[in-house]
Write a structure and sequence with these properties.
CATH architecture: Sandwich
Number of helices: 5
Number of strands: 15
Helix content: 10-25%
Structural class: alpha+beta
Shape: globular
Oligomer: single chain
Largest sheet: 15 strands, antiparallel
Amino acid sequence: MGLHLWMITKLVVALSKVIFLFRVSDAAKNATFDENYKITWGNQHVQLLNQGQEVQLSLDNTSGSGFGSKDYYGSGYFQMRIKLPGWDSAGVVTAFYLNTNLGAHNELDFEFLGNKPGKPITLQTNVFANGVGGREQRIRLWFDPSTDFHYYKLLWNQHQIVFFVDDIPIRVFKNNMMNGVGFPNKAMQLVVSLWDGSSWATDGGKTKANWAHAPFLAHFQDFRIDGCVSSPTSPNKDCYSSRYPWNNQKFWQLNNRQLRAYENVKRRSMKDFVLDEDIDAPDAVLKPFHFCLFLTIFQICLFLKSAPYLA
């Protein structure tokens, strides 16, 4: 049994390296920062690296920083490769999200909540639709997001919103407007920011950012955008057209592989928004080796299948 497990582990590691090499090759074709994004605040705390293929945001006791897309979008498949501030990052919030900025508030959030040394970073997702939020969910990731880059992705069409970590769906928000549940349907801008959330992010605000360890640094890659350009004041009615791949029927719901992975994530790690003391409970922490192995194999299957956009 031990030998078989060792052989499976070696195979997974080898295949993961192959996938990584393919993705590195593909990343070379990605858009540069200036093609799709602009700095929105904290200019002195933003640094472009590798000829615009990477951006470093920094946070200290004087300012955070951020950038946003030049255009607004009415649907799409959005992604960013992110490496978070590590070690003592309590109080530090790194965010990647879609936001309306105008009119009724629509927003789709990835928020990474820093933590004390030895404590895991928490990923919080949220959905605002027509000014109504309060849908926070938190998850403990199955890896340390501060040691390497990982993909964080948002699929948004008229049928569903899916949050992905790498290729693993971690949250699904279905369109239930027929039942009176709001669903984001306004043009939104992609926004990335690094800021001080000491008032709430860690231990309910009891643990603040330790400025002795500043600057806190977050790194971002892959600035391509697959989205339908729209406007907050003049929506593009074509954004739900089937000519955009993410609107095709196969993206109206998770496929069987994705559904199995999603159920595993929900069962093992997902919790509705509660106090940090509750989230620190052992059943909220996702660490088991076998689940990590399952997720890696799942990613390999998706890659080999080569499904567009979601592989």
